[in-house]
Amino acid sequence: MVLKYLIPLSFLLLLISFWNRNDLSDDMVVVNELKEEPTQKKIDKSAFSVNVNKVDYEIQPMFDYELYGLVVSYELHDGNYNLHKRWNDHLNIADYCVVWDKSAFTKHLPKINFWNGQFTCNISTKDMQAWESFDPTQLSNNHLISDEKYIRKKLRKIKIGDQIRISGWLSSYKNLNSGGTRGTSITREDEGNGACETIYVKEVSILRHYNSIWRKLMYLSLLVFIVSLVIYVKAPHKARNH
Q1: Which residues of 29-57 are buried (b: 16+ CB within 10 A; e: fewer)?
Q2: Which of 109, 120, 218, 219 lies 20 to 30 A from 211 at CA?
Q3: Is the distance from CB of 114 to CB of 121 less than 8 angstroms?
Q4: pTM of this prediction?
Q5: In 77-162, where do the E strands start and end?
Q6: Whether pLDDT at 191 is above 90
């Protein structure tokens, strides 16, 4: 009898918690490193070639770059879909939209909506106080590129709410097979087309994982749903008389 109610209730909770799993909390603890602005230093480094998925690319480093940020939105890329397929771009593994400094520490951050398009990070809010507490120059959308398998694997583990450090080179790159090119922003104050940073990632680390109550409920409800379903299926059932 208990399973009769437990299965639909756990499934309902799973749906609700999954929908809210990326909601940020206003009491989230933010590490002190996120008070730092991104740093960049002009370098004189020759272009070099890499190969990803049998496609050759030429990368031109421009600046040493280090970024501490709170992930508010992201988009993982697969060169077999959408514009990345059309451009044969397997090098751009993901875009991560991050905030730092006062915009990461404000208690109004959960009232701001962030979402990624294929190449953009978008923001909106109906809360004027939240908007006034946010500095758009403390946000960047980062096109992350790498040919190193372990770096690409680590990047795919980053989720919304995680606090991260990324180190590498602000770079432009060219597809040597098709000739397509992508540049990079070199300032945090630009907007619109071309305002994203393209980073050849050399180091990446998650300083603090985000594990909200909704994510905990999602995993718990999933476990309860699966266990309850298995017990129900394996339990003996009385045959109905006709």
Answers
A1: ebeeebeeebebeeeeeeeeebebeebeb
A2: 120
A3: yes
A4: 0.88
A5: 92-99, 113-116, 121-124, 139-145
A6: no
User: What would the pLDDT profile of 43-61 be if each residue is shown by its tens digit?
Assistant: 999 999 999 989 999 999 9
The one-letter amino acid at 130 = A
Element spanning 125, H or E: none
**C-alpha dist (Å) from residue 139 to 50, 76, 147, 196, 219:** 29, 18, 26, 10, 30
Tens-place pLDDT, residues 162-190? 999 999 999 999 999 887 899 999 988 88
Locus of tokens 């600046």: 63
Asked if residue 155 lies in contact with residue 201, where contact means CB atoms within 8 angstroms, the answer is yes
Beta strands 181-182; 163-175: pairing state = antiparallel
